[in-house]
Amino acid sequence: MSNTANSPQGLHIVAKPNGPACNLACDYCFYTEKQALFPEKTNCRMTDKVLRAYISKYIAAQPTPEVEFVWQGGEPTLLGLSFFKKALEMQKPFAGRKIIKNTLQTNGTLLTDEWCAFLKGNNFLVGISLDGPREIHDRYRKDRGGRETFGRVIRGLRLLQKHGVEYNVMACVARETAGRPLEVYRFFKGEGVEFIQFFPIVERVQDERAEEIGFRLGTPPVPGLDEADSKVTPWSVEPEPYGDFLIAVFDEWVRNDVGKIFVMNFEWMLNAWMGYASPVCVFAKQCGRSIVMEHDGDVYACDHYVYPEYRLGNILDGNPLKMISGSITVGFGAAKETALPGWCRECDVLVLCWGGCPKHRFTKTFGDEPGLNYLCPGYKKFFNYSKKHLRVFRQLLEHNLPASKVMDAVKGPLVIKLNRRLSTKTKK
User: Fold this and answer.
1) Of 150 and 221, which is predicted with more confidence?
2) In the sheet where 311-314 sits, what is the strand order?
3) φ and ψ at 406, to 5 degrees?
4) Active site residue 317
């Protein structure tokens, strides 16, 4: 972990090279419905012209030494290996200017030995979507024929492991999943997964605005405003159970797996507790520097805000820096902070979440202020619970001791003893 306070702020573009096209039909997916933006298209595929403009302009605009290309969907592997081989060829002329990295987010069902050999040979980081054991995963993640997908995803995971591809797992936490935290976490441990990100499923029911333009789910509100009905879908996780889910996993992790298993949610929290800027937009003080590009080159303010009113321009005739600037200055980015309810500003764990994702700010505070994050009760419960451990983590790291030492200190009064011992050492 390094302090990046004096480093230039990078920009982040997530590319959707085949748009919302996917071979699965997950109940909770918020992106496949974006097909409504392209009613006359049966095939969403990025052209060579758009791909070339994206690669050259993204590299030219990136102020940091490293450029990360993130390929998402839909399901990007539907494009075949030929597309990604072409993308790498287009990146080669720029390799001397920047360190170029590639990340692929996939559902894993189409991975083969050939795919994995390519990914390993070209140092791709792969994010694979897997929600947990068969029963949990298959509840909402079926293919377009209504068939279960767990077996195919596990096969993909094992192929990644076989070829030594660097990967992490993104596990969606739906309503039922929240009640089975240790079953989910221990399943991943049993499968040899070392890097996990838990993603809470929160989707509102369709409103009139969404229905007008063909979207199945509700249109996100402007950050900080309560514009839409706050009813959520039956699969959306409930706030406090989500907090309980994180607490149960954290308890198991902090006692047994620190330094062996890396749960991104906990890494982000510790990063913020150490006083560093959040590496993810969800818990950043402001947002707007992470934008998304559709297959046709249209750029939007956020992955969760691919709606006509949040279109920033097109990569073919636009400048990524100007589009980022537009995303921030028109209020989208800064509003994440300025639109916080007063109740949030007085919160003792504000620096750990900064109000969370604007997409989820559609409930009200106890004082009837709009703009409260739906997941606030769960986040607050989890953050407050983990404080005592975060203090120990911080003291260990400040004294150049391995974070894994926390496992020796979390049982009973040892936490207090370690705190006292390190505090005394600090005074000296």
Assistant:
1) 150
2) 262-263, 195-200, 166-173, 125-129, 99-106, 66-71, 12-15, 290-293, 298-300, 311-314
3) -60, -30
4) no
- What does the pLDDT look like over 228-264, one tens digit per residue? 456 899 999 999 999 999 999 999 999 999 999 999 9
Token duo for residue 375 = 């997941």
**Cα–Cα–Cα angle for 42, 137, 37, nearest 5°?**
25
Give dist(CA 38, CA 20) in Å, integer: 10
The catalytic residue among 138, 229, 303, 368 is: 303
For residues 175 and 242, is the Cβ–Cβ distance under 8 A?
no
Given a contact cutoff of 8 angstroms between Cβ atoms, the answer to whether 402 and 409 are in contact is: no
**Confidence class for position 425, pLDDT limits 50, 70, 90:** very low
Mean pLDDT of 194-213: 78
Return the pLDDT at 331. 63
Three-state DSSP class for residue 219: coil
Whether 77 contacts 24, CB under 8 Å: no
Q: What does 293-343 look like in DSSP terms, one character per residue?
A: E-TTSEEES-GGG-SGGGEEEETTT--HHHHHHHHHHTTTTTHHHHT--HH
Q: C-alpha distances in angstroms, 223 versus 194, 231, 285, 303, 418?
A: 34, 17, 13, 14, 42
Q: How confident is the model at residue 316 (pLDDT cuts 50, 70, 90)?
A: very high
Q: Which residues pair with 172 in a beta bridge?
A: 199
Of residues 1 and 236, the one with the higher pLDDT is 236
CA 334 to chain centre: 20
Contacts of 56 (CB under 8 A, 6+ apart): 90, 94
State the chain's mean pLDDT as an integer.
88
Q: What is the dihedral of CA 182, 31, 352, 301, to 10 degrees?
A: 170
User: Backbone dihedral region of 270: left (phi > 0), alpha (psi from -120 to 50 degrees) or beta?
Assistant: alpha
Q: What is the pTM for the complete model shown? A: 0.89
Judged against a pLDDT cut of 90, whether residue 401 lies above it is answered with: no
Q: How many helices and strands, by DSSP H and E, does the chain display? A: 15, 12
What pLDDT sits at residue 304? 86
